[in-house]
Amino acid sequence: MCGIAGIQLRDPSLEPRLGELLAVMLHQAAERGPDSAGVALYGDARLTPPGHAAVSLTGLRVLAAEATARLGGDTDAVAAGQALVVRSATLSTEELERTVRRTFPEAMVTGRGSGLAVLKGVGHPDTLIEEFALRRAAGRQGVVHTRMATESAVTPEAAHPFSVGGNVCLVHNGSFANHATIRRELAAEGALFDSDNDSEVGARFIAHQLAQGADLEKSLRLLCERFDGFYTLLVTTGDSFAVVRDAIACKPAVVAQTDAWVAMASEYRCLAALPGIESARIFEPEPERVYLWQH
User: How far, in Å, CA of 243 to CA of 247, rounded?
Assistant: First the structure.
């Protein structure tokens, strides 16, 4: 039993409130998974300035100032709770990730992209809201996850969101029954895994399909064909916001939509404080139907 929630903003006047809205959603989901939490933020200039490549890290036991000094050049780092976000205005995302991995081989990369920061940590979600300074965040889109561990250890690395390709994030409520088989297939294709979490297998399957030329909607349809289990998924890219459930749809999910935003959560109470919710179109996603919105 995990809690997932996210929002894509259509009204630019709401962008300064993104973190405030996500903090409320994460707080309301806390009872669904009190052991760890994670956040993905798209377009928060505080963490990922415009025009910068960004790589998010966990497991690095140095201060941001020391990390900046060791990286050198025009690259710098900023701390956000148990996470560190490294930014560069001149390196591509791929070049920056190689630099980060070479400089800090002990760290785990939890996110990479342009304008994307992925923050994960162990502890109660309400505590992590403060550690991440989430209420100060701004941006156009974000997702949050609270975890009740079932498939792997309680560590920052096993927390969601899983971001294994440029600007793609996945949060998951449920479990995949055949993840070990698909993990072996992806590993044979060259995929490297950072955890034994079943949700990471789903994220890497989607990243593999995107790399093969499929779009996000087709990638999620293929996931529904290949994965057995009970699940609700929220998957985002820099401009996409998508929801899909398994064929039985036993994991809860609710979507709300207005002209100003579209949001999804495990429970309605995560959405109840959103501005304009009283006039929103609210519905439960149908089984195995991919719902996708573009920014």
Answer: 13
Residue 284, domain extent? 3-294
Amino acid found at 246: D
Pairing of strands 116-122, 3-9: unpaired
Number of domains in the chain: 1
> Would you please indicate which residues are annotated as catalytic (active-site) residues?
2
| Pairing relationship of beta strands 261-265 and 229-236 according to DSSP bridges | unpaired
The confidence score (pLDDT) of residue 295 equals: 84
The CA–CA distances, whole Å, from 192 to 105, 184, 284 equal: 15, 10, 35
CB 80 within 8 A of CB 54: no
pLDDT digits (tens, 9 = 90+) for 90-115: 999 999 999 999 999 999 899 999 99
Residue with tokens 């990286």: 71
Overall pTM surpassing 0.70 (yes/no): yes
CATH of the domain at 80: 3.60.20.10
* 213-247 pLDDT per residue, tens: 999 999 999 999 999 999 999 999 999 999 999 99
Residue corresponding to tokens 């699940």 = 231
Give the burial string for 232-254 (b: 16+ CB within 10 Å, else e): bbbbbbbebbbbbbbeebebbbb
